[in-house]
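quick one if you have a minute, typing this from the bus. theres a chain ive been looking at and ive put its sequence and its fold in token form underneath. please have a look and point out which stretches look like helix strand or loop to you. anything you notice is useful, everything is just below.

***
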Amino acid sequence: MAKVAELLGMSPMTVYRAIAAGEFPAVRIRGRLIVPAKAIEAIADLAIAEQTVVDASGWVSVQHGSAG
């Protein structure tokens, strides 16, 4: 999470809080939160293409339960 926080100019705790609040996309794998690089790239690409601010919470799909 430190790399994501550094890339976005935030503290790691701010990134964790945004994920917990459903405001930032992440994947949970065996209890660990992962922010896919492709998600960050896609959000940045959209912001550049539309020349606007993109709300990352629009990229969050809240799903509960297990896939198994």
Notes: Confidence is low (pLDDT under 50) at residues 64-68. The longest helix spans residues 37-50. The helical segments are 2-8, 12-20, 37-50. The radius of gyration is 12 Å.
